[in-house]
């Protein structure tokens, strides 16, 4: 494609007119497509259909003669903690298995830190004046919402292909004791698919922080969510932090939300012995225990690590073609548009599409008008404000494969139209 | 039984020796009995065995074509909210159905109030200096633990047969804006079985509070947990508060923990429209939604109000004889011991046993030594301290019926021995 900037105004007008016609034709189809949320498709949920009738009327006893139906068991079933230990990179004793939603665990640990403080902390975060979290961008809107909701200042740091810009991170945390945490999605990051390199993970573990109560919020949401045969692995943050004398620094989170059923999965927390003790002490006034029947259900269904791997392969078979479809359409329609680029993730749930500065909101609005729902532009940045108005998160998993092509075509048309509009077409 | 006080010292010694021999004989049996927690027995859990294979592989769609397996639905399934609406005394729109543990909902609403404040509040509770909750005693230890954990001062008020002593309550809340709440178990109270009279409920609804952000924590845990055919009903706190212009005062909590499965039940919140909006706004940063499959499972199993009633009748058939057994043993062994009395609950999970002042801890210690676990003396009071060391909570539901008699005999023996010891036998 000829670069728009090099065209004459007449040519621009003609190109713009053509794009507008294609857009109008697309819009006239009256499609209803949705690329907003990282939601598994119905066919993916069908892979876990067994869960809907497990564990069965006669099966409710877990290890240690635990009646899963009754009260108790704050840390979660031993067999559930063991099942996820490798995925979390922690011994089962240092794992807590909770109800659905790792977001809830992240939220609650922030709340506990605010009201009660963390291990190594001299005072609750809420008694230390203004505090801040580092937010690698683009990032996950729900992380940012927690900070915004509780008045935690967000300091943006650039997210690169191999993780946050560590020169920036190290400098900030070394000098500012009000910085209490950083949001990390270390593998197949939301939305860029970035994978933290071993070097970055080690620097996060080793770096000096002015705050003794600094915490890595290590949201390993996509630890086993591969899209290729490469099965990327990352360094073990718990081990590295311990090696560098910062044993209590990482809070590791994960869940089965995109392994089994998003609404009815299990969330997990893994950390140092002291941090686990801390979390259990915080959970004690809150609940007598998690839903252990659902934990048993998951243990019976997933069985072991091999069971998880097998299931994730089946997910991959369903969703990798959807990612490929989006990438193919973008390559065909957008490859030569200046300042348009996108990520090619090896796992996770998202493609991050960068459009020319100042165009993202317009693309999302045009798409909506044409029946393609996209995540609001800006959602990838703190306060919902992308200063460059450039990044759009594409979530191709939820629609049927047959719909992904048209949806991606629609998005590409909207990008072209927004670019044309900007060029004054 | 002759009153101990009227006996000669020789007679006291002889009686004490006899009691000690009986106690030793009991202890020698080496029984292991447990009357500590309000836990349903295994046979009660069997009543909900169907839940363990519901909803079934093909059934995951709720009203409005909701795929319960996937994300979303913060307020809970419409049919689940409707199912519990009557039990909660609120329209379904004003009900939130959450994951297991109403305790977690109570805890979280306290936390949200501390960090963010409530509707009608000028500031978060944590920004208002020292705050306090009224604690009717004897009461539920886990309520008190929440206050203690977050540094909320606890002000004891006497719990009478018809509810808290309202003369005391009204006076306190009218004059002290630091009093932000009161813990209420309005029906079949833990541990006394007290039922709040219509008059008390109305006074709680109507009373003037110095704090505009005062909240009734209305833990209606035993709303349908009858032990007799009387099926006691209480006044509707939501309606009464609205009538008296205090629409946002009550937070109503309940759960299916002692209806279906304690570990895997549903918790509910009901309140004013504004309070429900407030809670949903607070939940938004925390989670994308509750476990809707478990909600569907409960809807399929319980079906409707009649289904709940039928199930509760089956619970009653299993546990009412256990309560009767304890009452029979106490009547036979303790009826004439001065300053010993106990409650005869019409529902709920507990009998409250009052022993002579200064004897409760000793009774619990003696029981433990003899193989009968009791809830620690003092647990019924804030900070675990019963100033009179008098009240013991008896929970007869968990042991088999055949064990309840021996356990109650053991407790009675321990009471007699503690009394004899105190009399100097």
Describe this structure in words.
2 copies of one chain form a homodimer. Chain A is α/β, with parallel strands linked by helices. Helices cover 40% and strands 14% of the residues of chain A. Chain A has 14 helices and 15 strands. Chain A has helices spanning 9-28, 42-46, 78-83, 85-88, 102-116, 141-149, 166-175, 198-206, 237-243, 273-283, 292-302, 305-334, 360-369, 401-422, and strands at 33-34, 61-62, 66-67, 95-98, 132-137, 153-160, 163-164, 179-184, 215-219, 250-255, 267-270, 341-342, 351-354, 372-373, 391-394. In chain A, strands 4-11-10-9-8-5-6-7 form an 8-stranded mixed sheet, sandwiched between helices. In chain A, α1 runs antiparallel to α14, α12 (305-334) packs across α14 and α13 crosses α14. The longest helix of chain A is centred in the last third of the chain and has 30 residues, at 305-334. The model of chain A has no long low-confidence stretch (mean pLDDT 96). The interface between A and B is large, with 59 and 59 residues.
């Amino acid at each position: 494609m000829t670069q728009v900037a090099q065209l004459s105004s007449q040519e621009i007008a003609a190109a713009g007119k053509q794009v507008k016609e294609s857009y109008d034709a697309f819009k006239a189809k009256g499609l209803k497509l949705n690329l907003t949320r990282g939601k598994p498709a119905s066919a993916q949920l069908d892979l876990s259909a067994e869960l809907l009738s497990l564990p069965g009327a006669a099966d409710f006893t877990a290890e240690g003669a635990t009646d899963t139906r009754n009260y108790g068991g704050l840390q979660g079933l031993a067999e559930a903690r063991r099942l996820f230990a490798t995925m979390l990179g922690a011994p089962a004793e240092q794992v807590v298995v909770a109800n659905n939603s790792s977001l809830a665990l992240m939220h609650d640990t922030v709340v506990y830190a605010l009201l009660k403080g963390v291990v190594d902390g001299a005072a609750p975060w809420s008694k230390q004046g203004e505090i801040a979290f580092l937010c690698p961008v683009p990032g996950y809107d729900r992380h940012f919402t927690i900070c915004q909701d509780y008045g935690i200042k967000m300091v943006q740091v650039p997210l690169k292909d191999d993780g946050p810009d560590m020169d920036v991170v190290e400098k900030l945390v070394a000098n500012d004791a009000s910085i209490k945490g950083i949001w990390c999605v270390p593998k197949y990051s939301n939305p860029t698919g970035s994978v933290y390199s071993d070097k970055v993970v080690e620097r996060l573990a080793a770096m000096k922080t002015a705050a003794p109560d600094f915490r890595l919020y290590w949201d390993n949401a996509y630890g086993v969510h591969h899209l290729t045969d490469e099965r990327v692995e990352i360094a073990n943050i718990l081990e590295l932090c311990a090696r560098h004398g910062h044993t209590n620094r990482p809070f590791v989170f994960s869940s089965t939300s995109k392994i089994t059923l998003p609404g009815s999965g299990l969330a997990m927390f893994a950390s140092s012995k002291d941090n686990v003790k801390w979390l259990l002490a915080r959970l004690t006034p809150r609940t007598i225990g998690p839903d252990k029947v659902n934990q048993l259900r998951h243990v019976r269904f997933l069985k072991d690590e091999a069971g998880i791997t097998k299931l994730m392969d089946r997910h991959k078979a369903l969703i990798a073609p959807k990612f490929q479809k989006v990438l193919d359409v973008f390559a065909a329609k957008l490859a030569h548009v200046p300042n348009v680029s996108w990520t090619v993730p090896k796992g996770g749930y998202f493609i991050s599409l960068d459009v020319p500065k100042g165009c993202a909101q317009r693309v999302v609005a045009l798409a909506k008008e044409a029946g393609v729902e996209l995540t609001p532009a800006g959602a990838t940045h703190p306060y919902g404000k992308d200063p460059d108005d450039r990044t759009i998160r594409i979530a191709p998993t939820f629609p049927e494969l047959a719909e992904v092509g048209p949806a991606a075509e629609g998005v590409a048309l909207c990008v072209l139209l927004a670019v044309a509009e900007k060029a004054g077409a």
